[in-house]
Design brief:
2 domains, alpha/beta, single chain, 30% helix, globular, Rossmann fold, 545 residues, GMP Synthetase, Chain A, domain 3, 7-stranded mixed beta sheet
Length: 545
């Protein structure tokens, strides 16, 4: 059997899967392509390469070496893109700090990741001011800013980003690292207690990039990312490498637009003026854009949008489709790097009415190349792919995190049985499409029967009086639980009796079980969200139970 092993010629080059190799060829093949930051700055890929080298030299001059950790606190910017490459390419670890966490949580992540240097936007200096006396590991702070005015702060800044780059060389000899070298760390908020650190190697990020390229770049028309597209993320870049798509866009050599701090007027104007054709965001961001009056003056018929991070309501999907947006679901989580499934519409179904396409576009999707995606019961037995039987999604793929940083217990729980456990309850149809019906912890159990909070939310959101909705389980002495719908008003004030009657129509049609009729409705001004824009049911349960 050993005779079948490849014999390596002594002079052969063993090509490592390194982030630097995602950058090399687009710079050569598409040197004039643009990187755009808001309405403030634009430069070509040649300059991008030079700026990445300058940043590598500047960090090295600050004493950053292989194995050190460089943290970033910034809005979505060209600077962030440069850090995505320069930091891991010198052998350091990039820590993308979730700037929406509380100061104490941010302090925890800084200490847990053992940050050595922090690159901080002036907007987040007050956060560091509040915790600076308790930070133990950081030896240098670099200022990121869009204005010329020096901010007032007690943070000991060692310099300003652009000034440091201006004084650095445009050449850097990036080493051939071991491809298993850790490249990134960030912290997931989808758990109780303090955030958990997940981490990824160069090899994992390169393989995820290639898998995503194969999945998004090969459809004939629908949801396809190609070299003539213009890419703009509308997902915070601290969140799972902004879903890994900045690496994909750079590897393709496409024009990239970075919007900085989100404002609906700016985002819509950038889509219009820069001819943006490919984006991704959570449902709440898209809802914000489609609700803004400026949307009427923007042609969105060439815009392709992946929705992830939370279930996409069918009503939102239909509203986007009617504006010409090519919208579909992507699935993943912090621990999966993240994309593992996409809900592309089969070519032969694109001529169907929009109302029929919505069902496919809102599904969780089909597994992308190299992803083993399965539904199992509590004993890890496979669940039939009949579109009805439910179980937990478990995964294997070459880019899944190996565990949680400095947390062996939860790492073992994540990977029990040799599969990564998502905690998502789903079914799978004969056509291979998965559909998440709930998070295991969010399923409402009434008289021993499971009721999907996600399905209830999706249906209630279709009512004209509802702008946003979240459903949680209320404790009930007789039935165990009953559903509570927290509703933000839409066109008019929601009425509990009217909404219950609306839900009854789906019970009568067989879409919902009779237990959904136990619905209670509470009108609220807003629904609590997590730092990445997901509905925060943990907080909602604390407030309303």
């Amino acid at each position: 059997m050993n005779d079948l092993l490849i014999e390596r010629t002594s002079s052969a080059y063993t090509y490592p899967l390194l982030i630097k190799n995602l950058l090399a060829y687009p710079v050569v093949n598409n040197p004039d392509q643009e990187i755009v930051y808001r309405d403030q700055l634009r430069f070509d890929y040649r300059t991008l390469r030079e700026r990445i080298c300058r940043l590598a030299n500047a960090l090295t001059k600050l004493g950053v070496k292989a194995g050190d950790t460089v943290a970033v606190m910034d809005w979505d910017s060209h600077r962030y893109l440069e850090c995505f490459f320069a930091v891991p390419m010198i052998g350091a670890v990039l820590h993308t700090i979730n700037v929406r966490l509380s100061p104490d949580q941010i302090l925890y992540t800084i200490d847990n990741a053992e940050d050595d240097v922090i690159l901080v936007h002036s907007d987040f200096l007050p956060t560091l001011d509040a915790i600076k006396g308790r930070i133990d590991t950081v030896h240098d702070y670099v200022l990121l800013c869009d204005e010329q005015v020096q901010p007032e702060t007690h943070v000991p800044l060692c310099g300003e980003y652009e000034a440091l780059l201006a004084n650095a060389s445009t050449e850097f000899d990036f080493p051939d690292l071991d491809e298993h070298t850790r490249a990134t760390t960030f912290y997931t908020t989808g758990t109780t207690g303090m955030p958990k650190g997940v981490y990824f190697s160069h090899r994992q990020l390169v393989l995820h990039t290639l898998g995503a390229l194969a999945a998004i770049g090969t459809p004939k028309t629908q949801g396809r990312l190609h070299q003539q597209d213009v890419y703009m993320p509308i997902t915070p870049m601290f969140h799972v490498h902004a879903w890994g798509l900045p690496y994909v866009a750079t590897a393709l050599g496409v024009k990239q637009v970075y919007p900085g701090r989100y404002a609906p007027e700016l985002l819509l104007n950038l889509i219009k003026e820069e001819d943006v054709t490919f984006s991704h965001c959570v449902p709440t961001i898209l809802h914000m854009l489609l609700s803004h009056p400026d949307v009427e003056s923007v042609d969105l018929s060439r815009w392709k949008v992946i929705i992830g991070g939370a279930a996409m309501p069918q009503s939102l999907c239909l509203a986007a489709l009617k504006l010409g947006i090519d919208i579909f679901t992507g699935y993943g989580m912090s621990e999966t790097c993240p994309i593992v499934a996409l809900a592309h519409v089969p070519e032969d179904q694109l001529d169907k009415p929009l109302e029929e396409q919505v069902e496919i576009r809102c599904k969780t999707g089909r597994a992308i190349p190299l992803v083993g995606m399965h539904i199992v019961d509590e004993e890890m037995n496979p669940v039939p792919a009949d579109g009805e039987s439910t179980g937990e999604i478990v995964l294997r793929a070459p880019w899944l995190t190996q565990g949680y940083l400095k947390d062996n217990h939860n790492s073992e729980q994540l990977w029990r049985g040799g599969y990564l456990h998502t905690g998502d309850v789903a079914n799978q149809g004969p056509n291979g499409y998965f559909k998440i019906t709930d998070r295991a912890k969010d399923v409402i159990k009434i008289a021993g029967e499971w009721v999907s909070s996600l399905e209830l939310e999706d249906l209630i959101a279709q009512h004209a009086t509802v702008s946003e909705v979240a459903v949680i389980g209320l404790p009930d002495d007789k039935w165990g639980e009953r559903p509570l719908a927290l509703v933000v008003p839409g066109e008019s004030e929601p009425n509990e009796k009217e909404l219950v009657s609306f839900v009854k129509s789906f019970v009568d049609s067989g879409r919902l079980t009779r237990h959904a009729m136990m619905l209670k409705v509470l009108v609220v001004d807003e629904i609590d969200k997590t730092s990445v824009g997901k509905i925060d049911k943990k907080v909602l349960r604390k407030k309303h139970l």
